[in-house]
Amino acid sequence: MRAIILLFVLTISLYCADGDHLVVGNVADRVVLADHATAEYNAFPFMKRVKYYFFSSPDNKKIQGIQVLDNLHSKASVNITAGGVGHSFVNLRMKSERGKGLSYDIGIYVSPDFQ
């Protein structure tokens, strides 16, 4: 019986260990999608793939939210290297697992114009 419970817990923990998503700030309420992009790299054996993404607001609006979703549900990582929420620019660094591909869906949200 203990073996069955242990197997069940292990299966659930592996199923729940999905990709590394990044959600910072407000991405749902009273914000406008300023930029939408997809960052993709194919797999290369025994190598980690690194992709950079740069966004700068053309009219200097401050970023309200950043949403970066891992489409492959891998163990890839994403980091903000400069800027971010409260700034008018953001730099992202995405790194894949060794020998795996990379696929992220990126959304940058800014406050709307009320004129």
UniProtKB/TrEMBL annotation:
Pfam families assigned to the protein according to its UniProt record, in alphabetical order: MBF2
Secretion signal span: 1-19
Keywords carried by this UniProt record: Signal
Keyword Signal: yes
InterPro entries associated with the record: MBF2 (IPR031734)
Top-level taxonomic group: Eukaryota
UniProt keyword Signal, yes or no: yes
Name of this chain's protein: Salivary secreted peptide
Lineage of the species this protein comes from: Eukaryota, Metazoa, Ecdysozoa, Arthropoda, Hexapoda
